[in-house]
Amino acid sequence: MKILVVGGGGREHAIIMKLAESKRVEKLFCAPGNGGISRYAECFDVKATDIDGIVALAKKLAVDMVVVAPDDPLVMGMVDALNAEGFMTFGPDKAAAIIEGSKVFSKDLMKKYGIPTAAYETFTDAEKAVSYIKQQGKYPAVVKADGLALGKGVIIAQNEQEAVDAVRSIMEDKIFGESGSKLVVEEFLTGPEISVLSFTDGNIVVPMISSMDHKRALDGDKGLNTGGMGTIAPNPYYTEVIARECMENIFLPTINAMKAEGRTFKGCLYFGLMATPNGVKVIEYNCRFGDPETQVVLPLLDTDLADIFEAVYKGTLSDIDIKWKNECCSCVVMASGGYPKKYPTGLDISGLDDKGQTEGVFVYHAGTKFADGKFFTSGGRVLGVTATGETLQAALDKSYAAVKKIHFENAHFRTDIGKRALSAK
Ligand code: AMP
Ligand code: GLY
Q1: 309 and 206 share a domain?
Q2: Alpha-carbon distances of 226 from 58, 301, 380, rounded to whole Å
């Protein structure tokens, strides 16, 4: 098979490395890819949101499958355009991708089908949102922009003033753009967070190994929300009891609800969960593989990923026995100094070989360029330094030993990835 992967971050690098293990895969392409990916797959300078450009590229390369990894092309309908041209695809169509594309949609879906989630109200009017918040008078209050906002459209307001400011900055100043024309105000939940990615062909849902993201920029879960500063798998809070509860109350009801709405979901459905004192609740759905969750989940997969993708597309997922390695995995993100705010790019990266790798780990590239035989920074999250081990501690030791050997000016990483997981129970 010849496969084109759309996207250009650490998640796409992880998908490509897993596909490269498949005996069925003859050639891998990526658009736009990045410096690290270019050492393993041929990259093309076509934006991940350029639907016409990607369709044209898929035709030119005569690929057998296109994997659409990021949220925005999925929500825009890239899969519909590729399917219309007869390509086998991995990823939901536009009608199904709305589960991530609109928080108002996903909250209303959960309410309609009795799927546990934080209590909420939705608003299209800033004044009404403000008076609701004042009347509730409960803090922290959670204010979410309706649409996609690079994972940053959520504001946890600690008091009335912050909540009112959040509403005004989302709806009036449009800090998250048009994604802020509607918003959701919801109850603040507490408890450990669990990410569960799943494969679903619309008929059955197969959860992958659970993981835990570390969303805040700084140690001790301080600082701003980011796309994710590191991950570990499996997540120790995802016990067998909780897994059963999730399958019964959340996973199956969600895929059945989507089917009932005429929005059958095929692809990777990501469940962002919180194990609250009142049971597991859905914090968010994503219509795609998580980043950086994928970087710790796929290395543990022991089944051919191309076979799984094909079965998801064809609706024959129940024919495949999906197996996992009995190991742990950790990914420590090295980010540009200043991320998630302003940061420089084009800095020299040292400590990597000509494949962009270093001994003892796998380095998934998120924001790098490769030029004149060297790697340079080109994004906020730069590298995901990933290791497997018999225990989580062993994996983390390897990740952090490698992080010490890799340098770029003002590199920022958290020193406590996995700490909460290690102290679980
Ligand atoms: P989201 O983009 O919806 O995943 O939200 C980003 C992060 O904000 C989540 O991973 C949680 O840490 C936090 N968060 C979102 N919704 C809530 C909530 N209702 N209660 C507490 N924390 C939340
Ligand atoms: N790591 C969270 C996400 O991919 O949205």
Answers
A1: yes
A2: 32, 26, 10
In a domain, 101, yes or no: no
In a domain, 346, yes or no: yes
Q: Are 271 and 285 in contact (CB under 8 A)?
A: yes
CA of 196 to the centre of ligand 1 (A): 15
Say whether 179 sits in a helix, a strand or coil: helix
Question: CB of 102 within 8 A of CB of 122?
Answer: no
- Which mutation among 103, 156, 176, 216 tests ligand 1's pocket best, with the greatest number of atoms within 8 A of CB? 156
Give pTM, 2 decimals.
Answer: 0.95
Closest atom of ligand 2 relative to the 213 alpha carbon = 1
Mean pLDDT of the chain: 95
Rounded distance from Cα 54 to ligand 1 centre (Å): 33
Supply the residue whose CA is at minimum distance from atom 5 of ligand 2. 290
Question: Ligand 2: which atom is nearest the Cα of residue 290?
Answer: 4
Same domain for 277 and 393? no
Query: Is 100 a domain residue?
Result: no
Q: Which residues of 368-377 are buried (b: 16+ CB within 10 A; e: fewer)?
A: bbbeeeebbb
Q: Which two tokens stand for residue 275?
A: 């194990």
Cβ atoms of residues 12 and 367 within 8 Å: no
pLDDT digits (tens, 9 = 90+) for 349-407: 999 999 999 999 999 999 999 999 999 999 999 999 999 999 999 999 999 999 999 99
Q: Which residues line ligand 2 (CB under 6 A)?
A: 151, 213, 228, 286, 290-291, 293
Range of the domain at 360: 328-422
154 lines ligand 1 (CB under 6 A): yes
